[in-house]
């Protein structure tokens, strides 16, 4: 018997013993599979409901799991690259096993949907029997379920690897899963989901923490990475910790949580704030630590109630005709949870304007908005500009030094425009500051703790720069917690209303000017390679040349606007077919975006302002047989 056929023979023997003879299959299969089969006995294969829940209910569940989704998004994107290359899919579930998101190979997605491995379907053991998502949640460990190890015979062609995701108090938050054909899933896939789950837990604990956060590791170089131990202390008691911390101390959540911090860490622990040092534990063991203060529990509660009510009261009313408004609403929600936002768009598309609106509507609206144009700073000065410097740090330094832009953003929003232009040599230091929230000025001196929300912008594709070795992958994952793809001006369905509003704001209202329809239509039909920035310049010129009370017609427009060919207006095409199904309009929009982006899924998704999984599902439906498509 070959080694390849041995596992399948063992599984066949186990299934015969368990399902046909009702005997214990333990000698033939892994212990966790045997336990799961026993737990799955109540599942009736004839009564499996494969229908996804209604989209409105799924959206409610996604709303409830918003923090999980936002913290897991970078890992979903990262795992998707592996999944697509290996003909697999990546799925994220909540604590009940309900699949919230799915992304991956267009070739495998239809196969996954045929066995209901798709968003809106619960894959707990009580619903689907033994499977990687449900069994990982039940066993509370990362594991694989391959082929016939699945309880339901209909899932026998699947190979799945899943890892549970825990909160800082040991509660299940969800699971990450890689699924594909059995031969495609192996221990490498299991290692990937295990590491990704650890990253999500690290990000979630930091986003939820209030009080003191102790970062530590026996190896100082690992502080500031996802491999560090994290412990949250409120009111002198340990209230949360990640699994790395448990492993380093040899503890469980039950034996660590709610302990007195001074008894466990020693009387010196409060003195470790804002600096790296060694902490001697009561037993004499030393660990490298960094202590941060993120605000007291009470201040955290206030931020989630009173402060947010104040933000809602002070926020400008949302213009429902503004296509950017839904993007802004989503960005505000994730930024208010401490998740960094990356704004992607063409030059002149309004990235800084969007970011300022984001700051004005966020929990940090009362704090500063500190903008740094990374592209305009000389490479020799950008380090001093960002991190500040001490007196005498270098020739030409100010006499009393300078705090730096990062420290100036304390309590507000730090906006790094054109972040792709930061020199590679400085990216490591920036990553360390973003992870540790402690900035050390040039020339030495004590590190200073900083507290800010991060918004970055770029017109470049960061994944392509990572591939080219010009941008660090770990920094990309850190700054791109949530990505907003701003549409180019000629792609905006609301551009006529936008042009009319900007015309008035550019002085048209003050001079009582009227923008005639022929001029508006000509302006709306132009491609605007310089986007909103170019539009504003043209509008200011029109206003300057007009006399008070004039009616501005198309004849007053610059010559290059007359000569240019009009851009295709998809919104008008769909408006002329009011009875066209929404699905048809959506498919057409995705197809057009793919053609415009040379079938690059990531670029097409950014162009449409949707997640890549939406485009992958569209491609999967196209490849699926007609009888198997699901909309």
From TrEMBL:
The keyword Magnesium does not apply. SUPFAM superfamilies: GAF domain-like, Homeodomain-like, P-loop containing nucleoside triphosphate hydrolases. Pfam families: AAA_lid_14, GAF, HTH_8, Sigma54_activat. CDD domains: AAA. GO terms for biological process: regulation of DNA-templated transcription. It comes from the Bacteria. GO terms for molecular function: ATP binding; sequence-specific DNA binding. InterPro entries: AAA+_ATPase, AAA_lid_NorR, GAF, GAF-like_dom_sf, Homeodomain-like_sf, HTH_Fis, P-loop_NTPase, Sigma_54_int. Keywords: ATP-binding, DNA-binding, Nucleotide-binding, Transcription, Transcription regulation. Residues 317-544 form the Sigma-54 factor interaction domain. This is GAF domain-containing protein. It comes from Variovorax paradoxus.
């Amino acid at each position: 018997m070959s080694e390849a056929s041995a596992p399948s023979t063992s599984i066949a023997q186990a299934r015969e013993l368990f399902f046909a003879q009702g005997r214990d299959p333990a000698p033939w299969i892994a212990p966790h599979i045997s336990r799961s089969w026993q737990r799955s006995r109540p599942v009736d294969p004839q009564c499996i409901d494969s229908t996804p829940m209604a989209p409105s209910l799924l959206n409610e569940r996604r709303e409830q799991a918003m923090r999980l989704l936002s913290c897991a998004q970078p890992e979903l994107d990262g795992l998707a690259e592996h999944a697509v290359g290996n003909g697999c899919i990546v799925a994220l579930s909540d604590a009940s096993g309900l699949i919230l998101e799915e992304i991956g190979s267009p070739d495998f997605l239809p196969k996954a949907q045929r066995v209901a491995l798709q968003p809106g379907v619960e894959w707990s053991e009580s619903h689907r029997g033994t499977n990687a998502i449900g069994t990982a949640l039940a066993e509370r460990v990362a594991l694989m379920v391959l082929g016939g190890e699945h309880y339901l015979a209909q899932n026998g062609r699947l190979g799945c690897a899943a890892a549970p995701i825990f909160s800082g108090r040991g509660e299940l938050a969800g699971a990450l899963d890689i699924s594909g054909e059995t031969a495609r899933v192996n221990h490498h896939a299991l290692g990937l989901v295990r590491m990704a789950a650890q990253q999500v837990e690290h990000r979630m604990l930091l986003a939820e923490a209030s009080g003191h956060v102790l970062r530590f590791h026996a190896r100082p170089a690992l502080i500031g990475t996802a491999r560090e131990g994290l412990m949250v202390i409120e009111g002198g008691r340990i209230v949360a910790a990640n699994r790395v911390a448990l492993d380093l101390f040899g503890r469980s959540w039950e034996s660590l949580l709610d302990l007195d911090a001074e008894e466990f860490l020693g009387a010196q622990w409060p003195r470790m704030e804002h600096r790296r040092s060694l902490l001697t534990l009561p037993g004499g063991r030393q660990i490298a630590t960094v202590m941060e203060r993120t605000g007291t529990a009470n201040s955290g509660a206030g931020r989630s109630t009173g402060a947010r009510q104040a933000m809602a009261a002070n926020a400008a009313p949302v213009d429902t005709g503004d296509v950017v408004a839904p993007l802004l609403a989503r960005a505000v929600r994730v930024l208010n949870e401490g998740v960094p936002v990356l704004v992607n768009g063409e030059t002149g598309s309004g990235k800084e304007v969007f970011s300022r609106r984001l700051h004005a509507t966020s929990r940090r609206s009362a704090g500063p908005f500190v903008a740094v144009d990374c592209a305009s700073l000389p490479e020799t000065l950008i380090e001093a500009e960002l991190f500040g410097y001490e007196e005498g740090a270098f020739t030409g330094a100010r006499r009393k030094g300078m705090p730096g832009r990062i420290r100036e953003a304390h309590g507000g929003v730090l906006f790094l425009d054109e972040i792709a232009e930061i020199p590679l040599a400085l990216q490591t230091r920036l990553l360390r500051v973003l992870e540790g929230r402690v900035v050390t000025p040039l020339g030495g001196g004590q590190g200073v703790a900083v507290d800010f929300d991060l918004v970055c912008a770029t017109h470049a594709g960061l994944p392509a720069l990572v591939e080219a070795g010009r941008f660090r992958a770990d920094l990309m994952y850190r700054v791109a917690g949530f990505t907003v793809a701003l549409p180019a001006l000629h792609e905006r369905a609301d551009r006529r209303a936008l042009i009319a509003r900007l015309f008035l704001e550019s002085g048209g209202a003050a001079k009582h000017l009227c923008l005639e329809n022929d001029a508006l239509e000509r302006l709306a039909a132009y491609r605007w390679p310089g986007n909103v920035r170019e539009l504003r310049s043209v509008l200011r010129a029109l206003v300057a040349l007009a006399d008070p009370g004039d009616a501005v017609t198309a004849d007053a427009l610059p010559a290059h606007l007359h000569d240019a060919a009009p851009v295709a207006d998809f919104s008008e095409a769909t408006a002329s077919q009011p009875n066209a199904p929404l699905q048809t309009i959506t498919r057409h929009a995705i197809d057009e975006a793919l053609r415009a982006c040379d079938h690059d899924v990531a670029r097409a998704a950014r162009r449409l302002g949707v997640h890549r999984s939406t485009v992958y599902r569209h491609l999967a439906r196209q490849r699926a047989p007609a009888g198997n498509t699901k909309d």
